[in-house]
Amino acid sequence: MAVSALALAGAFLALYLTLYKLGYIGHLACGTGDCEIVQTSKWSTLFGFPIAVWGLGFYLSTFAVATAGTLDRWVESRVPSALSLALTGFGVAFSGFLTYVEVFELHAICRYCVVSALITCALFAIALLDWRESRADAA
User: Fold this and answer.
1) Regions of the chain short of the pLDDT cut 50
2) How many independent structural domains does the chain possess?
3) Which CATH number do you get for residue 37?
4) How far apart are CA 70 and CA 73, in angstroms?
């Protein structure tokens, strides 16, 4: 349940940033102005899509895996745990890279990006605990 709630919170955050990047929101409610520096930088897109869209896909995928893991078909399987761990592990690595870019390339910290990175780290921690538990149960 916690994974689903965190993933949805992250999805709403990513949706907000996506709407800004696509021009549907005129000004980010950030307070420092750093969020707009980050969101309008050359680093804010990947393969032609805003980073926020990739984040939205990540959070929705995490939500889907967590939800699928509760279905009767997958309850006893270790597949959802392993998939969740791999997905959130990649998310932590990518968030780390983006944080590096903010600090050392842009010299601007987006508060929303920090919250997203914290959500991703929390998702990874929960996925790691779940995966370890699923391994212990199988042994």
Assistant:
1) none
2) 1
3) 1.20.1440.130
4) 8
